[in-house]
Automatic annotation (TrEMBL):
UniProt source species: Pasteurella testudinis DSM 23072
Name of the featured protein: MOSC domain-containing protein
Pfam families assigned to the protein according to its UniProt record, in alphabetical order: MOSC (PF03473), MOSC_N (PF03476)
GO molecular function per UniProt: catalytic activity; molybdenum ion binding; pyridoxal phosphate binding
InterPro entries: MoCF_Sase_C, MOCOS_middle, Pyrv_Knase-like_insert_dom_sf
Domain of life: Bacteria
Coiled-coil annotated residue ranges, if any: none
């Protein structure tokens, strides 16, 4: 059964930094190709998130044939090459410990100067060592917990109707944005297909204060909207605010804007 279509595709090459919008993408087992394959960490390997460090939104990154091109809001740029990552060490994302590669000193110094403390740029490598806790055979990027996040423009409209301030879909940092599907129907699907790829609908996405951070200015909303609206009107049975749903791909393949979304189960 067709339930809407794919309207937007977004990548986040470095976790918690600016989005890159594309018209077509390759879905890999870990998620979209180039999505959250890099991450900034503390010196001990602990991940850094824009939940606390809004200055991460000052970084924009684009994948290149050799690695990554990074630009800071101050106009300065950096070319990062895969060959700059030589040392492997453990890192951590939400209690999940796994191996990743650390950039060279010059690269880390550039990021450290911007954030005004010692940080490291991490790369998954060509094959991720991380696995999803609920699906131990499934590879995962530096994303919080699942390979892809899908949101629905009709669900967004329902949130905006309840929210006392104007919001943007960018605040929800989705990979896939669909339209023409009933509001919150995405929470009930078990398995879907978009383009060449079938997905398991793992679980609705529990939201945090990051939704209250302006995607352009990085400022937190004075009244923490739309996070408060989600908690009041769109909470799950445990009282957790939810918006969007987490997907796990069952195969690799191409998806593109305009593809219909088929509900398989």
């Amino acid at each position: 059964m067709t339930q809407g279509s794919l309207q937007q595709i977004h990548l986040y090459p470095i976790k918690s930094t600016q989005e890159v919008s594309v018209g077509k993408a390759l879905v890999q087992p870990y998620g979209l190709e180039f999505d959250r394959t890099f991450m900034l960490s503390e010196a001990d390997g602990t991940f850094i998130s824009a939940r606390k460090d809004g200055e991460l939104f000052a970084f924009s990154a684009l994948p290149t044939a050799q690695g990554l091109w990074v630009q800071h809001a101050d106009g300065s740029t950096l070319d990062v090459r895969y060959t700059d990552f030589r040392r492997q060490h453990s890192c951590e994302v939400w209690g999940n410990h796994f191996a990743s590669l650390i950039a060279d000193e010059d690269t880390n110094r550039w990021f450290s100067d911007k954030l005004q403390r010692a940080v490291q740029l991490r790369w998954l490598g060509f094959q991720s060592q991380r696995r999803i806790k609920r699906y131990p055979q499934q590879a995962l990027s530096f994303a919080d917990g699942y390979p892809l996040l899908l949101t629905n423009l009709q669900s967004f409209a329902a949130v905006q109707q309840q929210c006392p301030t104007a919001i943007e879909m960018a605040q929800f940092r989705a990979n896939l944005v669909i339209d023409h599907a009933p509001a919150f129907s995405e929470n009930r699907w078990k398995q879907i297909q978009i383009g060449e790829v079938r997905f398991i609908n793992a679980k609705p996405c529990i939201r945090c204060v990051l939704t209250a951070r302006n995607a352009q200015t990085a400022e937190l909303h004075a009244k923490m909207e739309p996070f408060r609206t989600l908690k009041k009107h769109f909470a799950d049975d445990n009282g957790q605010p939810v918006f969007g749903t987490n997907l796990v791909p069952l195969n690799s393949g191409i998806i593109k804007v305009g593809d219909p979304l088929l509900v398989l189960e």
